[in-house]
Amino acid sequence: MAKADSATKRRNIRLPTQGYDAPYSDAVLVGDTLYISGRVGFLPETGQPPEDLEEEIRLALDGVKVVLAAAGMTMEDLVWVQVYCSDVRLFDRFNEVYKTYFTQSLPARAFVGAGNLLHGAHFQVQGMAVK
User: Fold this and answer.
1) What is the pLDDT of residues 29-72, one digit of tens each?
2) Residue 20 in contact with residue 4, Cβ under 8 Å?
3) pTM (predicted TM-score)
4) CATH pick for 10-130 out of 3.30.1330.40, 3.40.50.300, 1.10.8.60, 3.30.70.890
């Protein structure tokens, strides 16, 4: 049987749970590409989004950063981001916080209107990164 090359090796990344053991990996690294599961901005103490919208956005994006770090990557390694939002009128408010997470070029992105998100969240962020 032929050995798999590094482009086909797969590593699942599971972060410590905070009271909820979800049936998925936080990310999957295949070769140099990291596929990041959706991240929401929940308060660790409550498992609910905070009242402050900017704090919710930061918690979601900080969650992406934590997953990237677990794979040895940074926000600058993101090449594609998809944001689900329960109210597309929040587009500009999301962007104000989002752009502060990047110092170089921005990844490709989609901002998608969605129905209700988990536990009343306004945003869910997922993406792909390449090292």
Assistant:
1) 999 999 999 999 999 888 899 999 999 999 999 999 999 999 99
2) no
3) 0.90
4) 3.30.1330.40
